[in-house]
């Protein structure tokens, strides 16, 4: 099927678009024709061609290889979250660097000021070896995963080492400010790029700091998911909660992020991993990925939490951090709420042991509120943590996870429900509304 405004030739080269001889200024190398899913306002989108300006200083142009279709995009489309329009959707993708913007003044960076000669610290690979591309800026030909937060490296959050909470990330505001616009309709009307990267468009100009080089042997579909779902889920377990070997974990909601959290718990050495969902197929997949137990979500959070404790009591965990001195099950050490629902939050709070941790990962509609018995919560000594982007710095965690994919040490391909074309995105959104399957990933055809 060919999307509106997308020729067979564009389908064949949707990843790179089509080179033309046009130029915006005598200094510009020419404009690319691309195609993407454009958000027009709540409930409205279209798949249309657009043009791409050359990258500016501190920017790169990326030909997309793959993009995930995430529930966050659906929240925007359905009006659950307020976002500007018109904007090319998508925030979970990977592709190839086609061009790099002009150099800045030697020894300086747009956001961070003077750079050290050695650049950023390389993220370690297996056995402590540096991973490909982790210690440098992207170059033409690099295979990159795009980050929806590109840390500026100079704000208070970045200086604390919390780049995922950056206050002034490059490309913020969905690149809607006049000086940030790099994509336009054929009539020159400006388009935004969701989260600064707009991965449901075949070509984008993004901040260089948002394009993280990874091992080019990484499956593009998996690489796309590293950009959001995989990092968010694994990072919540290994970085936000810092689950220790032998601890017990519950994961509530088994979409792409929840299944990644199951993998994170496996990676951390959790002794019990309880997967919770209403969908039997998702529960089966969680077992394939490493869940030790499953619970079908009940009508109430309290009933689901009771089922979790009963399950743990039926098969006691020898080390016993989830049991009291008499051997009674008191809950899991860590509960990860990844469904983005109030019921999921309340289930997590009810399922942890005294002193345990509930980690909020899923993003509900704006304005959603969960109930809490404050007295009982304080008495329990439990904790609530919020996990944004897995509490991870993209330049560090993306190459690390890509390494797991290339090595085959984690079955990350099982997070992919289906590989689709750009024209299939509306159907993918419908499947998300029905709660069907894991991630659907758009594959852009190579030129």
Summarize the structure in words:
The protein is globular. Strands 3, 5, 6, 9, 10, 17 and 18 form a seven-stranded mixed β-sheet that branches. A six-stranded parallel β-sheet has the order 13-12-11-14-15-16, sandwiched between helices. Strands 1-2-7-8-4 form a five-stranded mixed β-barrel. It folds into two domains: 8-103 and 118-228 and 391-443, Quinone Oxidoreductase, Chain A, domain 1, CATH 3.90.180; 242-386, NAD(P)-binding Rossmann-like Domain (Rossmann fold), CATH 3.40.50. The chain has helices at residues 8-12, 71-77, 156-159, 220-226, 229-240, 256-268, 280-289, 301-314, 342-351, 374-380, 394-407, 425-434, and strands at residues 32-41, 44-52, 59-69, 87-88, 93-100, 143-146, 183-184, 190-193, 203-207, 211-213, 248-252, 272-277, 293-296, 332-337, 352-360, 383-386, 416-420, 439-443. 52% of the residues are buried. The longest helix is centred in the C-terminal third of the chain and has 14 residues, at 301-314. Mean pLDDT is 85; it is low at 1-30 and 105-134. It is of the alpha/beta class. Helix 7 (280-289) links the parallel strand 12 (272-277) and strand 13 (293-296). Helices cover 25% and strands 23% of the residues.
């Amino acid at each position: 099927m060919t999307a509106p405004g997308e020729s067979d030739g564009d389908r064949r080269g949707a990843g790179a678009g089509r080179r033309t001889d046009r130029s915006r200024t005598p200094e510009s190398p020419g404009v690319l024709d691309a195609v993407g899913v454009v958000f027009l306002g709540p409930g409205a989108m279209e798949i249309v061609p657009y043009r791409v300006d050359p990258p500016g200083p501190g920017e790169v142009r990326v030909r997309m290889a793959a993009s995930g279709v995430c529930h966050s995009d659906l929240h925007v489309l359905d009006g659950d979250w307020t976002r500007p329009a018109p904007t090319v959707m998508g925030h979970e993708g990977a592709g190839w660097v086609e061009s790099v913007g002009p150099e800045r003044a030697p020894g300086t960076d747009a956001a961070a000021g003077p750079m050290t000669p050695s650049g950023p610290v390389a993220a370690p690979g297996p056995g402590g070896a540096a991973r490909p591309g982790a210690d440098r800026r992207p170059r033409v030909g690099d295979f990159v995963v795009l980050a929806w937060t590109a840390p500026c490296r100079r704000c208070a959050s970045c200086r604390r080492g919390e780049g995922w909470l950056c206050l002034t990330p490059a490309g913020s505001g969905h690149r809607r400010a006049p000086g940030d616009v790099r994509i336009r309709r054929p009539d020159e009307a400006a388009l935004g790029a969701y989260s600064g990267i707009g991965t449901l468009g075949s070509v984008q100009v993004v901040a260089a700091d948002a394009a993280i080089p990874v091992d080019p042997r990484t499956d593009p579909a998996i690489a796309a998911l590293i950009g959001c779902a995989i990092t968010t889920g694994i990072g919540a377990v290994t970085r936000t909660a810092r689950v220790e070997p032998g601890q017990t974990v519950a994961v509530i909601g088994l979409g792409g992020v929840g299944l990644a959290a199951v993998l994170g718990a496996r990676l951390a050495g959790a002794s019990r991993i309880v997967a919770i969902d209403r969908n039997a197929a998702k529960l089966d997949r969680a077992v394939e990925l490493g869940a030790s137990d499953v619970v079908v979500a009940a009508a109430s959070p309290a009933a689901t939490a009771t089922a979790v404790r009963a399950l743990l009591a039926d098969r006691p965990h020898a080390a016993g951090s989830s049991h009291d001195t008499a051997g009674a099950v008191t809950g899991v050490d860590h509960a990860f709420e990844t469904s983005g629902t109030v019921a999921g939050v309340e289930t997590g709070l009810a399922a942890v042991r005294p002193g345990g941790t509930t980690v909020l990962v899923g993003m509900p509609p704006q304005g959603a509120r969960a109930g809490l018995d404050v007295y009982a919560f304080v008495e329990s000594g439990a904790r609530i943590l919020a996990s944004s982007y897995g509490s991870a710095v993209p330049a560090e965690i993306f190459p690390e996870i890509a390494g797991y994919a290339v090595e085959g040490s984690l079955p990350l391909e099982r997070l992919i429900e289906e590989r689709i074309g750009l024209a299939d995105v509306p159907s993918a959104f419908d499947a998300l509304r029905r709660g069907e399957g894991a991630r659907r990933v758009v594959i852009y055809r190579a030129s």
